Amino acid sequence: MNVLQQRRVAVLGATGSIGGSALDVIARHPQRYRVNVLTANRSVDAMVKLCRQLKPELAVMADANSADAVRKQLEADGTKSRVESGSKGLIEAAANDLSEIVIAAIVGAAGLESTLAAARAGKRLLLANKEAIVMAGPLLLAALAEGGGELLPIDSEHNAIFQCLPLELQQGAARAGNVSSADNGVTRLLLTASGGPFRGRTADQLESITPDQACAHPNWDMGRKISVDSATLMNKGLEVIEAHHLFGIAADAIDVVVHRQSIIHSLVQYRDGSMLAQLGNPDMRTALAYGLAWPERIDAGVAPLDLLAVGRLDFESVDRATFRCLDLAYAALRAGGTATALLNAANEQAVAAFLDRGMKFLDIACVIDETLAAIPCAPVANLEALLDADLTARRHAARIIAAKLS
User: Read out DSSP for 28-63?
Assistant: First the structure.
């Protein structure tokens, strides 16, 4: 493959853990890929370093002051990357013709608009931002159909499910978010969960949990927000919602099982009783490499799995009474409409209060539950209505949090 055949890539959320993994995979294949667009939030020094190294045509900072700081440093040393900022800049980064592949790795609801823009523009969208599809699954699938591009899941669980499908079903999922026709043979999806750092603990033992304890995931190196989501099992709840939209599978046909080794990343059950699983060492680069090259496979830099070293694979049921967030996510999915956006907004507010303001770990589920009970859900009519629901939930959750901290 010569330089003229390089595929141009935009990495949205380039300074985060998933962005870093994506850049590592891309660096292993300089003849196949060129990074043309980078975005970040406020990490000025990290963005400047990446721009000097990769020389993208466009760099976007969500924060305007951070963009000014990046621009000044790049101008000082002659790096010619154009620097933009804000939501307008992020949408341009996702949708312009500087890239063919967009890796959506912005954490939280902040990544929603740029993800929709990438889908509408017909990109190959590597979706690592689960909140975008949790909040706006129908809108994202409509944007995908409008743009005629491809959506490939990068969450390890959904990427595993995707890999366990035959090619024709992969193509249906990538282009339409649907593998659920009556004759495809798929009967159930099983998402595996490590159980997080508190697997086996009772509610009483979780009363005095600290943010550092919640962020100490036993198997994965992740950002603080997603680490807390893993500890509450909300991350798995969001993944159930995501699986429903990505694969067109009903909530009742999506199960969660605790698998503490994080070696089997998920499974697909077929009508004939067969169950296919994708196994590998826990490393996001596997999913990223698969998404970048699909339907080919390329080196991800991940060590092959040594089954003799692993020795055994263990499974157990989820303690739903202690880790209530999983059932809250199922309830929101079954309610439909804006309920999943309300769930996501309340969770983001609650996790932030736990990390930054000292709210109790167990109060995260309480804030979400009370918010969902207080705000009626409505059909997802358009993005504006969805963002209004998101804001309403955040304000209500903030009042609940304030009362708990007073």
Answer: T-TTTEEEEEEEESS-HHHHHHHHHHH--SEEEESS
